[in-house]
Structures
1.
Amino acid sequence: MSTKKPWQGVRMRTTSAAPEIDGPPRSVTLPVGWDDRAAAALAALVPGHGSVTLEAAAESWIRPIADRARRSGIAEPLAAGLHHLLLLRRGAPTAPVWRDEAGNLGFVLNLRAFHDPEQGFDLAGFRESVDVAALALALYAPMERRIGIGFADLAGLLAAMGLPYDSAAARGFAAGLAALLRGRADAASAALAQRFGAIAPADTCPAAPEVPAFPALAAAARDALRIAAESGGLRHFATTAIDDPGPVEALLGVEVGGIAPAFSPLDDAGTLTATARATLLAANLTAEQALAATLAGTSLFPQVPESAVAAMRKAVSPYLHAVPEPAGLSAPEVATAAKRHELPARRQGYTQKAAVGGHKLYLRTGEYADGRLGEIFIGLHKEGAAFRGLMDAFAIATSLGLQYGVPLSEFVEAFTFTRFGPSGTVEGDPAVERATSLLDYVFRNLAANYLGRADIAAAEDEEADTVGAGARDRAPLLPFELPEEASPRMRRSALRVVGK
């Protein structure tokens, strides 16, 4: 990427935009080619009521990320990469990063922006963008164990490439993209784990799909998945996700969220969408020829059936950690209720006596006949009645979850590294040296004894008051020197973006 300042020479315009129809307008400055929908999205993404410029808003979250990269010895030109992704409308982080709030952290890549009519799909640019997105999210929130890098406007990309949405070629190409996204994101997480320590094992997913029409894509996906699988561990439990569209998609000019098809060739103003124009261009048809064909009874934009949407989701979902159910698909006719598996009347298990930071507790387990964990009890020695009651209720809730089929690994992921007192050195249990809380100790113990997990990162010394809003800045797992008085910005309602 160029070392030239990314915003130099960019023509800007200032307009009045409101994040909601009946909300107060704001003065918004953004590039000339960006429409009013993008202006409204920017007004929604940036907290406050005053004027906002895209360059300043982007700098407010890019600068801290770049500073942390520099302090960690990461020499990549991360700031320039993030600015260029945004300026080219290829990608941007989701709303929590713009607002400096806690929440599900994600990064949206606009697939249509990676296509050029002359050069085709920019495979190298896509790979590099995934790397930049993964590194940026990890540096922004060092304590987050889940990030969600995803893509949007698959329909627009397929149209530009001349691939009918309801075709095997389109599904193969989409599956290859999803596999490449997963492999690069996991590989980036593995590289971070080598530098700062792994907290999750190297994940496994299906082999990269064969994409005969796009061999370079298939080869890139295979290489990325192989590198990730051969790593010693990852920095995140999850790295990829496709979410419902929001203000970031509108800012990037995305017409169709996620992997959904284009439901209409017309936009809200009654003109052809970019996807529809790309469809005509790929078919070498002018607008006049398209109109003539339509008047003659030829459907150039056939309605995509629900079965095609379901098939597309089936093609990409094996490679992504989270894919929402497409809107409009029928629910199964018969829903199977979750069944509780009762424990035997006489059961095996163990009782572990330990002390965390000098506070004694007893952990007792109950097992099924096959040795699976089915219940836990947590007994405290000298804690107050209210705290003991809360821990009893938590143990019961966890036990019910186990008996209804929730994997123990999900509880381990959710409750290790939770931070509140008491915490500190663990005595009496050789499997766990330190714990950041009683819950952290309990699930480290269970992970070691029932899952054979020895790969969970060691607990670090932290003050109990790092929990809550702004904790990601005050208690990072990576060795950063962050501002002590950092606090999240105030929340505001998000722009409602209706996916087409």
2.
Amino acid sequence: MKKITEIAVVTGGGVGIGEGICKRLAQDGIKVIVTDIDFIKAKSVSDMICDLGGQSDAMQLDVVDEKNIHQVVENILLKHGNIRYWVNNAGISKIAPFLNHTNELWDATLNVNLKSQFLCCKEIIPHMIENGGGAIVNMSSQSGKVGTNEYQAYCSSKFGVIGLTQSLAKEFGEKNIRVNAICPGVVYTPMWDNQKYDYAKKKNMNPEDVMEYFRKKIPLGRLGTVEDIANTALFLLSNQSAYITGQAINVNGGDIMF
């Protein structure tokens, strides 16, 4: 009997950690639907996967647009079949003193980092129930476990992701749906190209010293890599983690340990 290829959808898959997750899942034989608000970036990642012999497609997705989420999911189901795995990776990050946190910054951060995961889970879980189960990975952060000054919107959104993850895991475990969160530490991605200047201002240090400052704090003596997070995502989606749900897994080299 021919093996049915499992399908995974990754939000924010066009760059950084999302791109790494897409590539790692494809290496394991999973058909990956790369979604991103920037279709050109999503298509580039998808094409790269296909060029390397994997299976992939790209779709534009605005994760804060409920109608768009519904349309994309329906298109995937029609074109590719049942969605077994979903990775809520799309996110934004901005360092700013709390008294400079505007309503717009707060709303944008909570919408993209937290509400989007609520909307995507609300859309995909009924399909997973109908098809006998599935696995969801939500991207949180170690800043979802430890609050940080000048990072209130981001921390609040990532704490919320862990609460959402635990609640969904409790409610849908009996439907064979596992929901876990990943809490990365510092991983150098394009997001840090601009953010390191804000962090340097906060710490009154040279922007070029920011990554080394982080590295020295980490017991394993290095920053995280995209591959570290991608490997964890694959594990949490796979049957190797069949008895793991509702967890917020630190992937941070020991920077925090709870």
3.
Amino acid sequence: MTDRFKDTYRIPSARWQDWDYGASAAYFVTACAAHRERFFGEISNSEMSLSETGKTVQAEWLKTPALRPDMNIMLGEYVVMPNHFHGIIVIGENRYNTDGGDGDGDIVETRCIASLRQQQWQPNRFGYQSKNLASVMRGFKSAVTKFARMNRIPFAWQTRFHDRVIRNYDEHSRIAYYINGNIENWQDDELYV
């Protein structure tokens, strides 16, 4: 990939280049508030007290499977922190990631951990992103931003989001443990500001 596009610098993608983010897999995602400002609430005595924006982050995340039933989504552990959000999301097998994406595939039982067998790898599809992790995160972040604007609440997300394809059960367990302990370990968190 070149460093320039139309004579301007491009920012390299943070996504795993060899992975199709519409594939059936479990993903660990993190979305941060702009400038890591504490828009979502405060932690006191190891308890998170959510602001209105924080409550909206939680509500919009929990609505994700219902808003996208065709993607066979399941949610795992998640936590809303003062300035960021962590969650595990599973995109199950669905008509967009089976049978070549023609919409005619059958929905089958969701696997919670990504299978990294070589034959299942597909190159990431660049261009308009739909029916994949990026489209889910775009919709989630957009809904929270819309709420804040409609209620004249100062708020902005940091651009992009961080993700990790969860590769096996042990990794899933470590990430779930990290998420579940995030509030208690807030002052030691790298996102603590």
